[in-house]
Structures are given as structure tokens and as C-alpha cells.
Amino acid sequence: MPPLDAHGGGGAGYRPGPAAGTPRAAQTYPRRYPPHTWTVPVMADATERVSGAAPSAAPSAASSAAPSVAPATAPVMAAGMSPQIVAGVARAEGGGGPAGSVDPRGWRLGDTIPAALAGLGVAARLATPRRRADPSPSRLAYRLNRLWLTPLFRRALTMGLPSLILAGSIALYLSDDARRATVTGLFGELRLAFENRPEFRIETLAVHAETPEVARAVEERLGVALPASSFHLDLDALRQRVEALDAVQSASLRVRAGGALDISVIEREPAFVWRSHAGLALIDNDGHRVALISHRSARPDLPLLAGDGAPEAVAEARRILAAAEPLGDRLHALLRVGERRWDLVLVGDRRIMLPPRGAVTALERVLALDNAPMDLLARDLVAVDMRNPDRPTMRLSEAALAELHRNRSPETGDGIR
User: Fold this and answer.
1) Are residues 254 and 380 in the same domain?
2) How many domains does the chain divide into?
3) Which of 47, 61, 244, 350 is surrounded by the most beta carbons within 10 Å?
4) pTM of the prediction?
5) Is residue 260 classed as helix, strand or coil in its secondary structure?
6) 230 plus 284 within the same structural domain
7) Are residues 281 and 253 in the same domain?
8) Is the domain of 156 the same as that of 80?
9) Quick one: pLDDT band at residue 2, thresholds 50, 70, 90?
């Protein structure tokens, strides 16, 4: 008697057993698999149904029917047929209907199990066991997938390779001299047509300078033939050409709307008149030549510098002239001697000879002696030598020197009256 569950029926997985004394196949219930994968064992009652015997037959009848079942059941079990199919075929054979009648499924009732399976078309499938496909990728597929996930490889494959193919195709096409000349000529014509468009054409030139002479000199210096395309004009080169003029300190060039080239010029301011072996020239505070003049009277308002190397030492000349303001109109010029020191040339060709270093300090000492009551520079002097600041020397004129000798005492030979 099978055990009963709480509702009075058989327990889970219960199947009616065979008659008493009939052996049963061993039942195995795996513990590690879910219920839907359990294998239902072959039971004796299913074997009886396959053979056509009734379940309630006597043990002698079941044992006598067993030899007739074995030939049909053994091939099925050897082929790996599940017990459910065996039980279903048995029920189909014993479910009624005359022997030899055709079932709608395509096989005849009363046929053996192998014949029935052949009619169903599953014999070939049951003969070869099915292998479950391995879901894991192959080693090559795995490595290719990992390589594709690398950003550098993906960028090189999606961008670098097409660019390389395109560059190679262009290089292969341009390897022929005739094709290369054709492409170069085509692009040259397109560029020339674009550069000569009216909106890029310059037709007028405007120079803004402080003096008309400088404006005319700038126009002559440029030598630009108008009209011309703005693409054909090198503004930096034109600016350098304008700034090469002595009178121009800086220049700026700008292409204005309407086809006009504007040139703004900042002129140099002359600060000195420099006399050299080449003649008279105007120089600015930086010692740069501004213009040439023919006479000193052309700019009498500017101080006069003379000697070689005067423009290079113009900064020191400015400091000396600033300290010599008390001299006023008595100062005639500032002479550069040996390109190392200065001499102040006074009216009457008198000089104050300054040292190479400390010239301003030495000049201030001379001006201090010129004040009353000594009035040094009002005397009959030729030069005041301050080249050695520790030992100043005064050089008298010839007349003053003769007067000195007449006033010398004949008895002692010293003293001056």
C-alpha cells in the first residue's frame, strides 16, 4: 500500500506499481536537479501495456507475456528513448481500435514500437545522441572581441585604415607626371580666379603722414602698381620697406573696405644736428638719422653734435646738454673726441674738455668756478682741461700768456700784478 499524503492520495511522484511478485526497475531520484529534469523510470505496468496485457492480469500471465515485450522494448531502451515516449506508445497501442487500423499520426495500431517510431520520424534522431552546444566563445573569437574593445585598435581600424587607403589612392593617382601637372594647373586656375574677384581688388592708395615730403617718399618707396589683388600684396614686406626710410619711425598698413590700402606713418622727431665727414644730418633722440640738410641754418633751433660716434652716444650728450643750460648762447657745439669722450665748444673756439667718465660732474665743477666772484669763463682762456678731475688745468690764450709774462716781477720772477 503506497503512502498517502495529507489529502488522502498518493505522494508526489507516485505511480501505480505492478502486481505482487513482479520485479520493478530501480528508481533513482536525483537530488541536485530541478523537478522538471527528473527521469521517470520504466515501470512494470508500462511494460505490460506495451505488450497488450491488462494491468490486473495474474502474475503467471504477466510473466508469460514478458518474452513477447522484450524484442520491442529492448531496442527502444538501447536507443535512449525516454520512458514517457514508451508509455505514450503503449497507451496508443492499447487505447482501443481494431488491430491494423491507421492512427491519424501516420502509424498503424498494433505495429511494433520500432516501426511506430519509424512512422513518427524520430528513429534517426533517437539513434544518435544529441550533444548540447557549448555557449562559450572560441579562443580566437574571444581574442578578437578583446582586441576590438581596445580604443586605440578601434580608432585605428575605423579612422586610420580608411585614411591610409585614401592617402594611398591619392598618392597612386598623382604618381603620374601628366596627371599631377593637370591637377596642379586646375587648382592654379581656380586660385587665380578666386584671387582676382572684385571684392579682393585694391585700386587706391592713401598715405597718412605729418609732412607731404614724407608722404611722397612713402609712395615712391612702395612702387605698387594698382589695381592689384590683396592676395598678391605682402603687407609685412611693404611695411618693412616703408620703415626703411630715415624719416619713418613706424608704419601700419591696412586694407580697407572699398578697395583702398591705408598707410599710417609715424615720423621721427629730429633732436640734433650732426656734423660728420659726409655732411649735415638730422638725428633723433635715439641717434637714428632723420634727414639730410645742406646748411646749419636750416635748423638753427637744434643743438649741434660733431665727430664720429656721436649718434651712438647721444644719450650721454643729452645729459651733458641738460647740465650745460647755464651757458646759454655761449655754447656752440658738443664735439665727440676719439669716440670716447666729449668737448664743449664755446663761442670764440674755447673748449671745456671733459673726461670719459663723470663728464657731468666735471662740467658742474667748471660751472661752479664760473660763478662770481671768479667768473672763470669770462677770462681770456682757450680751454679748461678737466680730463683729470683731480688736477684741472686752464690753458690761456697767446695774448693772456704775454700779459702774464709782462706782469711777472723781474727781481723774483714770481707773482702777478
Assistant:
1) no
2) 4
3) 47
4) 0.51
5) strand
6) no
7) no
8) no
9) very low
**106-143 pLDDT tens trace:** 444 444 555 555 555 555 555 566 677 777 888 899 99
| Grid coordinates of 67 | 518474452
Place of cell 562559450: 136
Q: Give domain status of residue 28, yes or no.
A: no
Element (H, E) at 383: strand 381-385
pLDDT, mean over the chain: 75
Percentage of the residues of the chain whose pLDDT score is greater than 70: 66
Asked if residues 204 and 261 have their Cβ atoms less than 8 Å apart, the reply is yes
Cα(221)–Cα(217) distance, integer angstroms: 6
List Cβ neighbours of 233 (8 Å cut-off, separation of 6 or more).
Answer: 202, 224, 255, 261
Q: What CATH number has the domain bearing residue 403?
A: 3.40.50.11690
Domain that holds residue 169: 139-195
Residue 223, number of CB atoms within 10 A of its CB: 8
Residue 172, in any domain of the structure: yes
- Between the alpha carbon of residue 283 and those of residues 63, 146, 244, 324, the distances in Å are 143, 78, 15, 20
Name the residue with higher pLDDT: 86 or 160.
Answer: 160
d(CA 144, CA 153): 11
- Report the pLDDT averaged over residues 43-66: 41
